[in-house]
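Continuing from the previous page...

OK, I double-checked the sequence for Arp2/3 complex 34 kDa subunit against my notes and this is the correct one:
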Amino acid sequence: MAYLERASPTLRETLLKIYRAEKPIEVDQHFHEFGSIQYHIKYSVSDPNIVHVSTSTLLETQGAVTLKEISSHTYEVIKNIAVGVIDIVDPPRLGFQLTLALHLNNIPRGKAIKVITRISEIQALILSSQLKEMLRKMNFQDDSLAMNNNNRPIRIVYHPSEPFYVFKQPEKITAVFPMNFKDNSDVVIATSFFQELVEVGSQKEMGKAPQCSWSPIPPLQLRGEPVQDLTTNSGFVSFDITSRHVEGKRLDKTVWNLLNFYAYVKYHIKCSRGYIQRKMRKRMDSLVKLLDNTSLEEEADHQKENGRCKYVKEFVKVPKGKLMMKQRCKEMTRRVKISKFRIKMNGCARFRFNQRWISLPKFSSKPSNKSSYTKLD
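Thanks. Re-ran it with the corrected sequence; updated structure tokens here:
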């Protein structure tokens, strides 16, 4: 499906790169955007005056209106984007819906960015033109189509996983969007958003806007459509389009809003999830601060109770150098006590006793019979 921005960012950057290059560069690029839209850019050094751009989208429809072919009115609108710059190649490149030959040298000076941006909006222009043509063919004044039971809804697929239906009702055309999401959190946010959208649309201030409705079950007009389209987890959103919504410039705005409804819902869900996550982080930070303040108050009370003990410990605190020396002495004493070997101390050899230097008397432990005692006065 189309995106919120009309211009293709990749196509715009590539064309600007080719236009601003000092020397011709070879370009053969094939890329996809949004799942169903594809582009092919061909620029050859042998023909530096022309850039070939091919584009197509996956279109599936059911009903009398065929959207796979581009109408002559759409061709004229594309040519008028830049007269003298765009030529339509017939037939288009194989496998593509449209091929353009761009003469970038014919772009007026000072208008290159504006013209290339308009050229990058080609796919959005094609999609809008096709849906505009379909709405014009479904006459609002002719209610015979709505009364005909054989008038089946038109199934439009701009993205493989995002089809929507358009069918005729008396004095209005209804567009129905089946909504599916992978994450359960997205389902909750989307359901709440749809209900709020219905409430806002029912207010008097929104009386001129297309009426919106939401239902968990599909409308009766979709009976008989593929089961995979009718099996949803977020219900069905419907918009009623009247004749005043397709008059003049309102037609372009109405068509563009219908094409971008899926993208708008996804954008809203993404923003809502980001907002909820920011709120949760702020709430968690406030709770953490509250817990930190409580723990600090408890520590302050504990310090007041044990204040005297703390001051005594600080008063008798041993200096760091003396404390390390004391620990080393204790460790050395412990090792000496548990040692099983003699300790050799250098410098103590001179204190050894030598019999040549000192003679010691010998004493006997047994008493002798000849021993005599002298009385001391």
